[in-house]
Amino acid sequence: SSAVLQALEDGLKRADADPSVKAVTICGENGIFSAGADIRGFSSPKRHGLSLGSIISLIERSEKPVVAAIEGVALGGGLEVTLGCHYRIAHVKARMGLPEVTIGILPGAEGTQRLPRLIGIPAALDIITTGRHIPATEALKLGLVDEVVEENTVEAAIRLANKV
């Protein structure tokens, strides 16, 4: 939603401007990272300025390490947000994917460019074209996530952020 995009932008800009902040962790709420965009918003008039792609670019450009703490699902735009992060930690029960292709929509926030850079073209093409959900253990093998944990994902992400 636009409220989530605005909160991400505000939080990232505050963190980058604050010298006491050494790293950033991005997580979802209630055990879910993000199920992606609300497709009803695709048909609404475009708002100028704030877009998912610009927020992901802001994450990617951050001079401070940004770690995604993935719980539940990171689908569509949610996965694309994690691809902009410098590191990704997933709970063992998490799933990731780009399911919008199953309804004829291509990932629109540069996930089709970032995913192949991260995991290679063959694996990325499979994920991009099938829309299947990748379990965390497979995501680790592919290099999509840096670590899989059975514990509190946010605490593990904060530990990694402090380490790097």
List the helices and strands and how they pair.
Blueprint: H1 2-17, E1 24-27, H2 52-61, E2 66-70, E3 73-75, H3 77-84, E4 87-91, E5 95-97, H4 111-119, H5 121-130, E6 134-135, H6 136-142, E7 147-149, H7 153-163
Parallel strand pairs: 1-2, 2-4, 3-5, 4-7
Antiparallel strand pairs: 5-6
Helix pairs in contact: 1-2, 2-3, 3-4, 4-5
Short description:
43% of the residues lie in helices and 15% in strands.
Query: What is the string of SSEs from the N terminus onward?
Result: HEHEEHEEHHEHEH
| Helix fraction bin | 40-55%
Specify the biggest β-sheet. Answer: 4 strands, parallel
Structural class: alpha/beta
Low-confidence segments: none
Strand content: 15-25%
Tertiary shape: globular
Task: Explain what you see.
Keywords: Isomerase, Lyase, Multifunctional enzyme. Pfam families: ECH_1. GO terms for molecular function: (3S)-3-hydroxyacyl-CoA dehydrogenase (NAD+) activity; delta(3)-delta(2)-enoyl-CoA isomerase activity; enoyl-CoA hydratase activity. In the C-terminal section; belongs to the 3-hydroxyacyl-CoA dehydrogenase family. Belongs to the enoyl-CoA hydratase/isomerase family. It comes from Corythaeola cristata (Great blue turaco). The chain is an alpha/beta fold. The chain is built from seven helices and seven strands, in the order H-E-H-E-E-H-E-E-H-H-E-H-E-H. It is 43% helix and 15% strand. Helix 2 packs parallel to helix 3 (77-84) and helix 4 (111-119) crosses helix 5. Helix 2 (52-61) links the parallel strand 1 (24-27) and strand 2 (66-70). Strands 1-2-4-7 form a four-stranded parallel sheet, with helices on both faces. It has helices at 2-17, 52-61, 77-84, 111-119, 121-130, 136-142, 153-163; strands at 24-27, 66-70, 73-75, 87-91, 95-97, 134-135, 147-149. It has a single domain, classed as 2-enoyl-CoA Hydratase, Chain A, domain 1 (Alpha-Beta Complex). The model has no long low-confidence stretch (mean pLDDT 92).
